[in-house]
């Protein structure tokens, strides 16, 4: 179906499928009401909106496309609400080149790439949607895109919840971001979003991960029950965190490493397993008015109790403490040994202090020649990781 030249039809309860191009194509300031259709199996986007077209797209199923679900570009608009967009090969919805659609109360799920993808100055509003179970991130924002993302539930992403990169912006407000396989929110490469009053929780990795020159203003968020650090700040990044609550984490509350810094004011950081605020060597954030209390401080307890740090971290977490290398045992540049293993297992060896940073202990992991005297069961993992694995980024596609 093509809609063009200010046309304004009603397209209702049709089966639109297996086309060699797209399903519905709206351009040249087209309008139209498109509702209760089943749009699937098309070679290009199920619905494409471009050149200031402004349709209403409501109650459709848009699925199993060989390409993406809904493609809005070249200043496309549109009210897109209460659709189910799922199982498409590329992005469920992608928004680019000055487009400003409004997406409300859609279910966007089970795609083979990203859920909603804003790039090259894609804007608009994403409100009250369920975005879940994508192989990439639930939402990606890049290259000058500046959407409003409010009141959504974003979960089950195999690559994380929201990824903001390559100069992405955006206001993320009052969303629930949870149960993602990687960080709830990634901010990297000169991106500068605002996150306000979100709940970011139950992540299988960290809560918010900011690296490679990421910025961002994080205000009044609840960040809790994440497996890795509530907020990890790394590699020349400088975000501002104000009045957040970071708690009940299975690792540290806030970790800053690798020449990063941050402004931390009036945050509450409490009941995190490895400690509240953990700073690597040389890190000097701007701090004021924070309340850091009732953290479990398992790292310090393990060190003072003579335990190997691997005992509390295994190879899945990265406690921050002093780490060393042993030249006698010929460890590699990516191996690290905790202070108690240096004292006990490597006593009398030629050892070198490296820095205070996040790591797991390779001695305790059983990957060095000498058997650890403080720790049992070896693991298969042979490389210490100092940073979380990088998220996958969607590639921009030009489609006419």
UniProtKB/TrEMBL annotation:
Q: What keywords are annotated for this sequence in UniProt? A: Metal-binding, Nucleus, Repeat, Ubl conjugation pathway, Zinc, Zinc-finger
| GO annotation (BP), single | ubiquitin-dependent protein catabolic process
The answer to whether the entry has keyword Repeat is: yes
**Pathway in which the depicted protein is active:** Protein modification; protein ubiquitination
Q: Say which domain of life the source belongs to.
A: Eukaryota
Q: Where in the cell is it found?
A: Nucleus
Keyword Zinc carried by entry: yes
Q: Ranges for the UBR-type domain?
A: 306-377
What the entry lists under SMART domains is as follows:
CASH, PbH1, ZnF_UBR1
Q: Which PROSITE patterns match?
A: ZF_UBR (PS51157)
Q: Where are the zinc-finger regions (UBR-type) in this chain?
A: 306-377
Q: Name one GO cellular component term.
A: nucleus
Kindly list the GO molecular function terms attached to this UniProt entry.
zinc ion binding
This one is known as UBR-type domain-containing protein
Which organism does this record belong to? Answer: Anopheles maculatus
Per the UniProt record, the lineage of the source organism begins with: Eukaryota, Metazoa, Ecdysozoa, Arthropoda, Hexapoda
């Amino acid at each position: 179906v093509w809609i063009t030249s200010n046309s304004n039809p009603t397209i209702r309860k049709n089966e639109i499928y297996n086309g060699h191009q797209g399903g519905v194509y709206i351009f040249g300031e087209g309008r139209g009401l498109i509702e209760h259709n089943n749009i699937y199996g098309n070679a290009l986007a199920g619905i494409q909106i471009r050149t200031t077209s402004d349709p209403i797209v409501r109650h459709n199923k848009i699925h199993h496309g060989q390409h993406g679900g809904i493609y809005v570009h070249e200043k496309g608009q549109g009210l897109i609400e209460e659709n189910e967009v799922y199982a498409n090969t590329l992005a469920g919805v992608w928004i680019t080149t000055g487009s400003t659609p409004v997406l409300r109360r859609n279910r966007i799920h089970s795609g083979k790439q990203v859920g909603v993808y804003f790039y090259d100055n894609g804007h608009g509003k994403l409100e009250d949607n369920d975005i879940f179970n994508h192989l990439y991130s639930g939402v990606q924002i890049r290259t000058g895109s500046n959407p409003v993302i409010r009141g959504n539930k974003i979960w089950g992403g195999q690559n994380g919840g929201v990824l903001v990169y390559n100069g992405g912006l955006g206001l993320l407000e009052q969303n629930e971001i949870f149960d993602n396989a990687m960080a709830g929110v990634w901010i990297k490469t000169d991106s500068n979003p605002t996150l306000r009053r979100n709940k970011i929780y139950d992540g299988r990795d960290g809560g918010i991960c900011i690296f490679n020159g990421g910025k961002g203003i994080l205000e009044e968020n609840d960040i809790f029950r994440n497996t890795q650090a509530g907020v990890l700040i790394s590699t020349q990044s400088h975000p501002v965190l104000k009045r957040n609550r970071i708690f009940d984490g299975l690792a540290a509350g806030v970790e800053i490493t690798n020449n990063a810094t941050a402004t931390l004011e009036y945050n509450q950081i409490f009941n995190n397993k490895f400690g509240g605020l953990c700073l690597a060597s040389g890190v000097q954030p701007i701090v004021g008015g924070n309340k850091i209390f009732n953290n479990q401080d398992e790292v310090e307890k393990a060190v003072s109790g003579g335990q190997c740090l691997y005992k509390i971290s295994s190879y899945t977490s990265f406690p921050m403490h002093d780490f060393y290398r042993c030249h006698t045992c010929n460890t590699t540049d990516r191996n690290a040994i905790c202070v108690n293993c240096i004292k006990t297992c490597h006593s009398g060896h030629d050892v070198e202090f490296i820095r205070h940073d996040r790591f797991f202990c390779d001695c305790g992991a059983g990957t060095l020649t000498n058997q650890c005297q403080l720790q049992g069961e070896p693991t298969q993992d042979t490389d210490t990781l100092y940073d979380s694995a990088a998220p996958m980024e969607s590639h921009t596609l030009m489609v006419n």
